[in-house]
């Protein structure tokens, strides 16, 4: 367990000018600990030491906001992340950091300007994977990322966990339209970032974020992406890390399908549903996955993974009849409609993605005004 002073050493060192993760670890190898490295840095003009007071203020600010600062020495630090050369020495975590210990995770990424069908596909797969014990990881961007997080959260009777990796400080919501999504993820999931608190969105930060998304996962699913999309960067990083790559095929006339189609041509697994992903993980002798998932499905009171032909009907009018503009509790919808909790959850998710309803505080939904 690191003391506050040792934690300040790590924050000070990683935020010093010209010290990135790789240099950070090299300095630790040479000087054995961060304090000793900081003592030696003044000998090298290219390194400008991050002020000690700023490091301590960072710790105090995190404490006030109930944000945990996790270093690579912490038992909460994800094991899978340690395998990449430039793993972030420090992570900031909001929500439930215990979720980072789940070894069974899959990242879902794709276009920000995603189609309705693309968003529905991402949500349905995320929903089914979460109900099968797989943690869905994404970047909380608009489009496919947001849809994946929402699908995961609607699983397990709307208590599904999900992991969001930000390209901003963990206390900065980006895009601003995802403020509600941010709060929802905090309820049952976890949000992490390697960037200091208060860091605003910068274009250079998102490619750096992508290596964490891919490293945290057993594989990466690309739903929709152009040929120059950041999602393909995530897929490439995952491939370099020895992870499985999955892709949803699409029409060659749609530029958002060009990325996944190219990945499939290059050897990615063509995916139509969540079961396709689980089959590949099983074929790759992921014995711990099979055991973990089987135990969850035997012991947890959640529905088994639905098959592709079990998708709900596209007709949503009956459920909409029970929803008004002021807001209705989801429990009331379940009682009034006669549908199961999982059926209502999935139909509400599709209505939300289609822009018909919005979620409110207190587990309520309302027609969009």
How would you characterize the overall build of this protein?
- The protein has 369 residues and is of the alpha/beta class.
- The protein folds into three domains: 1-64, DNA polymerase, domain 1; 98-299, Rossmann fold (3-Layer(aba) Sandwich); 312-367, Orthogonal Bundle (Arc Repressor Mutant, subunit A).
- It is built from 15 helices and twelve strands.
- It has helices at 4-14, 21-31, 34-40, 52-64, 116-131, 144-158, 179-188, 205-215, 230-240, 255-265, 274-283, 287-299, 317-320, 330-337, 341-353, and strands at residues 68-71, 90-95, 105-109, 135-138, 162-165, 190-193, 219-222, 244-247, 269-270, 328-329, 357-360, 364-367.
- The strands form two sheets. Strands 1-2-6-5-4-3-7-8-9 form a nine-stranded mixed β-sheet, sandwiched between helices. A three-stranded antiparallel β-sheet has the order 10-12-11.
- Strand 11 (357-360) and strand 12 form a beta hairpin.
- It is globular and about 70 Å long.
- The N and C termini lie far apart (51 Å).
Task: Give the end-to-end Cα distance, rounded to a whole number of Å.
Answer: 51 Å
Largest sheet, spatial ordering of strands: 1-2-6-5-4-3-7-8-9
Largest sheet: 9 strands, mixed
Mean pLDDT: 88
* The first-level CATH class name of the largest domain: Alpha Beta
Q: What level of helicity do the residues show?
A: 40-55%
Low-confidence blocks of residues: 299-317
In angstroms, what is the radius of gyration? 21 Å
Architecture (CATH level 2) name of the largest domain? 3-Layer(aba) Sandwich
What is the tally of beta strands?
12
- Strand residues, percent: 5-15%
Number of helices: 15
């Amino acid at each position: 367990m690191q003391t506050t002073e040792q934690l300040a050493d790590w924050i000070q060192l990683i935020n010093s000018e010209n010290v990135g993760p790789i240099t950070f670890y090299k300095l630790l190898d040479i000087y054995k600990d961060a304090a000793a490295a900081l003592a030696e840095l003044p000998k090298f003009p290219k390194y400008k030491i991050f002020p000690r007071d700023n490091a301590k203020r960072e710790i105090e600010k995190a404490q006030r906001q109930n944000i945990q600062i996790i270093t690579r020495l912490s038992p909460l630090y994800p094991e899978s992340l340690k395998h990449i050369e430039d793993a972030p020495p420090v992570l900031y975590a909001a929500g439930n950091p215990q979720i980072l210990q789940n070894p069974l995770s899959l990242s879902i990424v794709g276009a920000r300007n995603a189609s309705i069908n693309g968003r529905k596909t991402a949500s349905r797969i995320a929903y089914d994977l979460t109900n099968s014990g797989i943690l869905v990881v994404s970047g909380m961007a608009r489009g496919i990322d947001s849809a994946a997080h929402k699908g995961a959260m609607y699983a397990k009777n709307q208590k599904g966990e999900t992991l969001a990796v930000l390209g901003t400080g963990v206390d900065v919501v980006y895009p601003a339209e995802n403020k509600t999504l941010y709060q929802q993820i905090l309820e049952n999931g976890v949000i992490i970032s390697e960037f200091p608190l208060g860091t605003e969105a910068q274009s250079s930060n998102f490619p750096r974020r992508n290596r964490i998304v891919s490293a945290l996962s057993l594989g990466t699913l690309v739903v929709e992406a152009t040929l120059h999309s950041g999602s393909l960067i995530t897929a490439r990083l995952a491939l370099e890390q020895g992870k499985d790559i999955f892709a949803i095929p699409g029409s060659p006339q749609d530029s958002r399908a060009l990325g996944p189609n190219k990945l499939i041509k290059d050897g990615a697994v063509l995916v139509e549903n969540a079961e396709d992903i689980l089959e590949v993980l099983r074929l790759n002798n992921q014995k711990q996955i099979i055991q973990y998932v089987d135990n969850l499905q035997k012991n947890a009171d959640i529905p088994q993974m639905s098959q592709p032909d079990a998708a709900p009907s596209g007709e949503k009018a009956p459920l909409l009849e029970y929803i008004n503009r002021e807001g209705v509790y989801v429990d009331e919808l379940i009682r009034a409609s006669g549908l199961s909790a999982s059926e209502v959850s999935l139909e509400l998710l599709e209505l939300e993605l289609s822009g018909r309803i919005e979620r409110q505080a207190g587990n309520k939904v309302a027609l969009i005004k």
